[in-house]
Amino acid sequence: MLKKLLVANRGEIAVRILRAAKDLGIATVAVYSDADRDSLHVQIADEAVHIGPPAAKKSYLNVAVILRAADEVGADAVHPGYGFLAENADFADACAAAGLAFVGPSGDAIRTMGDKVSARSAAHAAGVPVVPGSLGRVADIEAGRHVLIDTGFPVMIKAAAGGGGRGIRIANDLPEFEAAFPQAAAEALAAFGDGGLYMEKVIGKARHIEVQVLGDGSDAVHCFERECSLQRRRQKVWEEAPSQALSDQLREELCSSAVRLARAVGYSGAGTVEYLYDDAADRFYFIEMNTRIQVEHPVTEMITGVDLVAEGLRIAGGEPLRLKQRDIVMRGHAIEVRLNAEDPARDFAPFPGTVTDLRVPGGPGVRFESMLYAGYTVPPFYDSLLAKLVVHAETREAAILRLVRALKETRIDGLKTTKPLFLALADDPAVQAGAVHTRWLEGWLETHAARLVPDLEP
Ligand code: ADP
Ligand code: ADP
Ligand code: MG
């Protein structure tokens, strides 16, 4: 088992990982930038190391400084969380070279699955259906024209190194395609340091369904699926499990395809295989793999009772997978909503500031994952996620009722948050019926956003 873990992250995920490590009796080390001196993750860790100025490039993304911190405190493992260095294969390799256990897959597995183009190839090779599109990277407009024969319009131009909903463009005809292609390449180079592009047919009215996997390098299991079709700008805002759209047979096909892929790449740790599901055609397509713990992992923990972060730590400590597929069963329904410091009535403008008072929801089936405390000032430098409210109940209907109950209990005074969005969504007939797709929320917001005014409590 690991002895001392350095968590190379901040915010709610750092808090979540520190808690899991403590529950396993592992000593914990936080790292923090100048902007995070007063953060909860710094307060709850056994030790904390200052790693630089607020700019992530100089702190949370600074590999040399983080490795030096791990060395100074005598850590034997590093957890990258999500974002920052989580899908950086060179960082995973550098940890290994420094004698540190990296909590996640090998650098090679990250390299294969983190590049969205090589991941498509790996999925195809493992017999997992991929979205029709280019076989590899598309070098130029000329090469793109050949791919268009298979995809038709509309077509998606995607950055091989993209993530977080960024680096994706849609072209509806040839002139749009020819204009968008060089722009997409320049943007991808600027944003991700890699201008490589690929193309995919646009799957209209698709659902986003993803499978949670756990691997130990030789074996892998799944913990069923999550549906994340409620998205804004291709970023998830509401996630749930199980998906309403899958029959038992389709669920089995989807989940076993994810396990096949995880085994094929010798996957180690927690990971997610993402798919689009076309209801009308009853077909699913691989889109990408996230080689890390995901924001929405608690949804799966609620329906399966598996502590995904703890399992990841055990695996990084060298234990083989403890869970057999038949031991993993799901019960009831879980929903997560992302409470961000944003004003939904003003195009989700960020709203950093000080939490003057806080009331956390509780009771049966309610989990509140957050780094907030009364008096905490949200810094403007990082992402706007304040808290994840996760509820679990016997049925989806009961979970929605519980979500509304818990949202109404929640007070985050002093900040504008996305709470009104979720109260309105929970009340919407289409959401209640589960009749949504990945573009649904953007259409809904056109008519509803203006009414989602957060009351700046008190
Ligand atoms: P997950 O894939 O775990 O569901 P997301 O897709 O929402 O999570 O985000 C993936 C990663 O991208 C997270 O680490 C998040 O911090 C980061 N991210 C999310 N939104 C943005 C954004 N607008 N700009 C940059 N990074 C983002
Ligand atoms: P990221 O790495 O930014 O998470 P993904 O490839 O996972 O990018 O896509 C993010 C979202 O964009 C998906 O959840 C879906 O809503 C939309 N999307 C991606 N590819 C397609 C596609 N081929 N057709 C339709 N929608 C897509
Ligand atoms: Mg994705």
Q: What would you say this structure looks like, in words?
A:
The chain has 458 residues and is an alpha+beta fold. It folds into three domains: 100 residues, Rossmann fold (3-Layer(aba) Sandwich); 70 residues, ATP-grasp fold, A domain (Dna Ligase, domain 1, 2-Layer Sandwich); 245 residues, D-amino Acid Aminotransferase, Chain A, domain 1 (2-Layer Sandwich). 34% of the residues lie in helices and 27% in strands. It is built from 15 helices and 20 strands. An eight-stranded antiparallel sheet has the order 13-12-9-10-11-14-19-18, sandwiched between helices. Helix 4 runs antiparallel to helix 5, helix 5 packs across helix 6 and helix 12 packs antiparallel against helix 13. The mean pLDDT is 97. It binds adenosine-5'-diphosphate (2 copies) and magnesium ion. One adenosine-5'-diphosphate binds next to strand 11.
List the topology elements.
Blueprint: E1 4-7, H1 11-23, E2 27-33, H2 40-44, E3 47-52, H3 63-73, E4 77-79, H4 89-97, E5 101-102, H5 107-114, H6 116-125, H7 141-151, E6 155-163, E7 166-171, H8 174-192, E8 197-201, E9 207-216, E10 220-232, E11 235-241, H9 248-264, E12 268-278, E13 283-290, H10 297-304, H11 308-316, E14 333-340, E15 342-343, E16 349-350, E17 357-359, E18 366-370, E19 385-393, H12 396-409, E20 411-413, H13 419-426, H14 429-433, H15 440-448
Parallel strand pairs: 1-2, 1-4, 2-3, 4-5
Antiparallel strand pairs: 6-7, 6-8, 9-10, 9-12, 10-11, 11-14, 12-13, 14-19, 15-16, 17-20, 18-19
Helix pairs in contact: 4-5, 5-6, 12-13
One adenosine-5'-diphosphate is lined by residues 82-83, 163-164, 166, 235-236, 290, 294-296, 383.
